[in-house]
């Protein structure tokens, strides 16, 4: 069993439980927004990630850090969920739990997830235009654009929609040229 499958097996029940509870109290979109913001904070703060992954750090310290960071940003239920993960020593799976939660809620809402990798941030107009193009390509009514920065692309962007990949990056073009030159 691969490490990714193992992580997904652990993450899926937590994500499903979150969805079930959020649906039962009619807070699915609010919990989704809160978890998206937590995921953003985790991806931008390597120090927080290191602290949460550190097995030597006590649970009470991890809980206090999470409380100070998120007490004004998320509702009590979401904060308590983070505390449960700390208590059960599953906080190291927080990223994948949130990703699985988002994936499942997007399936529930019939939303297409498009991952965008770019060297620079896109402005609002560019994002809206890209979403419209993706809607036309996928015949989807809702598109969630997940944006990540990747300086290795040199320029341009890569879009992943399910198993489809659209590579409009400079590094992709250079690789293609390199392969072409190597074969000749």
Automatic annotation (TrEMBL):
- NCBIfam families the record matches: ATP_synt_delta
Q: Which GO terms describe its molecular function?
A: proton-transporting ATP synthase activity, rotational mechanism
Its annotated compartments are: Membrane; Plastid, Chloroplast thylakoid membrane
Q: Which UniProt keywords apply?
A: ATP synthesis, CF(1), Chloroplast, Hydrogen ion transport, Ion transport, Membrane, Plastid, Thylakoid, Transport
Q: What does this protein do?
A: F(1)F(0) ATP synthase produces ATP from ADP in the presence of a proton or sodium gradient. F-type ATPases consist of two structural domains, F(1) containing the extramembraneous catalytic core and F(0) containing the membrane proton channel, linked together by a central stalk and a peripheral stalk. During catalysis, ATP synthesis in the catalytic domain of F(1) is coupled via a rotary mechanism of the central stalk subunits to proton translocation.
Could you describe the subunit structure of this protein? F-type ATPases have 2 components, F(1) - the catalytic core - and F(0) - the membrane proton channel. F(1) has five subunits: alpha(3), beta(3), gamma(1), delta(1), epsilon(1). CF(0) has four main subunits: a(1), b(1), b'(1) and c(10-14). The alpha and beta chains form an alternating ring which encloses part of the gamma chain. F(1) is attached to F(0) by a central stalk formed by the gamma and epsilon chains, while a peripheral stalk is formed by the delta, b and b' chains.
The protein's gene is named atpD
What broad class describes the main subcellular location of this protein? membrane
Protein name stated in the entry: ATP synthase subunit delta, chloroplastic
InterPro entries linked: ATP_synth_OSCP/delta_N_sf (IPR026015), ATPase_OSCP/dsu (IPR000711)
Spell out the family assignment given in the record's similarity comment.
Belongs to the ATPase delta chain family.
Name the GO cellular-component terms.
chloroplast thylakoid membrane; proton-transporting ATP synthase complex
Instruction: Name the membrane topology term.
Output: Peripheral membrane protein
UniProt source species: Polysiphonia urceolata
UniProt entry tagged with the keyword Chloroplast: yes
